[in-house]
Design a protein that fits this description.
Layout (H helix, E strand, L loop, with lengths): L3 E6 L6 H13 L2 E7 L10 H12 L6 E6 L4 H7 L4 E5 L3 H17 L4 E5 L10 H7 L5 H5 L5 H11 L1
Parallel strand pairs: 1-2, 1-4, 2-3, 4-5
C-alpha cells in the first residue's frame, strides 16, 4: 500500500519551519500533499495566490513526490480520505502545539478511523519559527534583518512588496 500523507496549514506566510516539515515528510512517505487550507480563525496576511506562489517556489527545493493543493472548505480528514491519504503529518514545536494537535488527531480519527496522524518535531533551528512570529516582526524597525532568515527568498520578496 502506498503511504500518502497530507501536511496542511495556513502557511501565511510559509516559513523555513514549514519547508523543514515538507522535507521530512517527503522522505518518510511515498507522496506528500501539502494543503494550503483556509483557517477561519486566522486573518489572512497573504492572498491565496501569494501563498500559492510562495509554496510553489518551495517545490524547487523538494523531491518530486511532493505536490501542493488548496482546500477552501470542508474537513481536512475527509479531504485526505477522498484522495487516498493514509496519514496526516503535523508539526509539534512545544507542549501547547501537542495538546492542540492531540485533540485534532482524535477528532480526525473519529471522522476517518483509518487515517493515522504522525507528529514530527522540528529541528532546533526551526522550532521557534512560526507564521505568527514572522507576521509579528514585520513593520518593526529593522524587521527585514529578522525576517529574512526565517523564510525563503521568494516569500521574503512577497513580504517586502506587501510592506512597501
Amino acid at each position: 500500500m502506498k503511504r500518502i500523507a497530507v501536511y496542511a496549514g495556513s502557511f501565511d506566510p510559509p516559513t523555513l519551519g514549514h519547508l523543514y516539515m515538507m522535507q521530512q515528510g517527503a522522505a518518510l512517505f511515498d507522496e506528500l500533499i501539502v494543503v494550503a487550507a483556509v483557517n477561519p480563525d486566522k486573518k489572512g496576511f497573504f492572498t491565496p495566490a501569494q501563498r500559492r506562489l510562495a509554496l510553489d517556489s518551495m517545490l524547487q527545493q523538494l523531491p518530486p513526490n511532493v505536490r501542493i493543493h488548496e482546500l477552501h472548505q470542508g474537513f481536512l480528514a475527509e479531504f485526505a480520505h477522498s484522495i487516498g491519504a493514509t496519514h496526516l503529518l503535523r508539526g509539534v514545536r512545544n507542549t501547547i502545539d501537542f495538546e492542540y494537535e492531540k485533540t485534532m488527531a482524535r477528532v480526525n480519527a473519529q471522522m476517518v478511523p483509518q487515517l493515522q496522524t504522525v507528529f514530527l518535531t522540528p529541528s532546533p533551528e526551526c522550532e521557534n519559527i512560526s507564521s505568527s512570529l514572522v507576521r509579528g516582526l514585520i513593520g518593526q524597525p529593522n524587521w527585514e534583518h529578522w525576517v529574512r532568515p526565517l523564510v525563503t527568498p521568494t516569500t521574503f520578496t512577497l513580504i517586502q512588496n506587501l510592506s512597501n
